[in-house]
Design goal:
Number of helices: 0
Structural class: mainly beta
Distance between the termini: 62 Å
Number of strands: 7
Length: about 110
């Protein structure tokens, strides 16, 4: 599915086009700096169809992997399915800071 990704100072905001997909078939998994999206779009049944003239819509299982330049805060992640779009908010983990380690010697 198509996706738009926006970045702010504190988080990533993702909009994913999931029109016609049952939200219960969608799974989101965060691993470090990677977001995995899997799901399935099922073809609707058409009764008494004699002939098909055009097929453009993709059906079946899908998988998307989004990689980000920094680790994500999976504890603060949120998602909302609304009007055919999945909206995902992924907070960034604070960047690690340089800390000088004192050197002790004898």
């Amino acid at each position: 599915p198509a996706a738009d990704i926006h970045e702010t100072e504190s988080h990533y905001h993702i909009f994913i086009d999931l029109a016609g997909i049952d939200p219960s078939s969608v799974e989101l998994v965060i691993e470090g700096r990677v977001l995995h999206l899997t799901g399935e779009r099922c073809r609707p049944r058409v009764e008494d169809c004699n002939r098909i003239h055009q097929l453009e819509i993709d059906f079946g299982p899908f998988r998307r992997v989004f990689q980000f330049p920094m680790d994500l805060n999976s504890d603060g992640a949120e998602s909302l399915y609304r009007q055919g779009f999945l909206e995902v908010i992924l907070p960034k983990l604070p960047e690690s800071q340089c800390v000088r380690v004192p050197l002790h010697h004898e």
